[in-house]
Design goal:
Elements: E1 2-4, H1 5-16, E2 40-44, H2 55-66, E3 68-73, H3 77-85, E4 92-94, H4 97-104, E5 108-111, H5 118-127, E6 131-134, H6 142-155, E7 159-161, H7 172-181, E8 190-194, H8 215-219, H9 229-233, H10 250-260, E9 270-276, H11 287-291, E10 306-312, E11 318-322, E12 325-326, E13 333-334, E14 337-342, E15 345-349, E16 354-355, H12 357-360, H13 364-377, H14 386-396, H15 404-423, E17 427-430, E18 435-436, H16 440-444, E19 449-451
Parallel strand pairs: 2-3, 2-5, 3-4, 5-6, 6-7, 8-11
Antiparallel strand pairs: 1-19, 8-14, 9-10, 9-17, 10-11, 12-13, 14-15, 15-16, 17-18
Amino acid sequence: MTSTRRDFLKKSAATGALVSAPLIWTPDTAFGRNLNSKPTVASIGVGGSRGRYNQGGHIARKASKLGKTIAVCDVDSVHTAEFNKDFGGKLNEYTDYRVLLEKEKPDVVTIGTPDHWHVPIAIAALRAGCDVYCEKPLTLTIQEGIDVRNVVKETGRVFQVGTQQRSENENRFLKAVAIVQSGRLGKNVNAYVAIGGAPSEGPFESTAVPEGLDWDFWVGPAPKADYSEERRKQFRWWFEYSGGKMTDWGAHHIDIAQWALGYDKSGPVEVVGKGTFPPIVPDDFNWDAFLNGDAKLPSGFNTAVTFDIDLKFKNGSVMNVNDVYKRPDSNIEFGNGILFEGENGRIFVNRGKLEGKLIDELSESDHEEINALVAELYKGKTPGNHMQNFFECLEDRQQPISDVSTHHRTMTSCHLCNISVMLGRDLKWDPKAEKFVGDEQAQALTSRRSRDSYLVASGT
């Protein structure tokens, strides 16, 4: 028997409600401890796909410098042991996040698991009274974004998503957003986003599960699958666990572009695009049946390889999303970054540069004005350190710079792109109702079923 992924999240939330919640951490209460004490941190998902540690281990270490790490959890016991070595072996180790939440009751949880586990764990942690820092992309589906946004609002917990471009990279992205919103490019601004293509390898052979890894738990709510190293270590190229480049780099660049265009709290009204998939994906494939576990593909990468998509907004602005952006009538071509263009000029930004004629011509007073706008965009705090921003917000109980609500709107646009390419047609979207207009097939792809074995928390 299977249930909807939404049911899974609701049941996870209900289970989490059984866990007694700690008091809110503020300078005044500090959980009854000395005001100089640090919030306790538990890190869930710390190893794997990028060398010795993945991004989960990286963010966990950053959190440990600002809080007091007390526990680590990973479905691979080798990863928990390796991570624990850096803490003198003093951390309590877990393979089941539900047991950790019940026993440790941490103040803060960092989540660095594969993407399909982000929201289930986040909701359980929120319900357990924890503030949460979660690696991007936060969601696997549009419905997950709606669910976790609602739980954050209900619980009042602080939640930061790991889209570091909102804080770091020498403020390049913040300045680009400020320049666009200041009107310097004009009133009618479009964005052209390139995020790179995805690989198309496979099928891959199934192999034995490595010692120490609970593979069934790793797969979790996703459809049951045999183990292969590629499936585990390169999960971003499998729709069962992620969304390809669209939710990888798209979670960064689409986020900045949508913010600059003024739609970070809303979204597009139409999606027009096309794309290609790896050879293992047949034409007119039933993606809904596949993602719900009722259809099969050979065991290989299955996310979009190339794409050219327009997200159209209510005011007429367009965000064009490509693997590589090329303009036939000029020498403009780039594989990673954002080009903003209006009637008064254009600027280009990526992690290495912010450039354009307009940038070169900025006066000292212009720079001062842009810096003031950056401070306003950053909610009055000092940018530069994304994790520090999260911990500062633990003190004043404000939502951080990459809050759940705006990130959900970013991820909705990413998912809209994927759904349009899956179905091979243009789609209309109602950003207020958060539903497709007149398209039941597209609407079905906004949520998924989950395996029942992962609906009930341990010991309940």
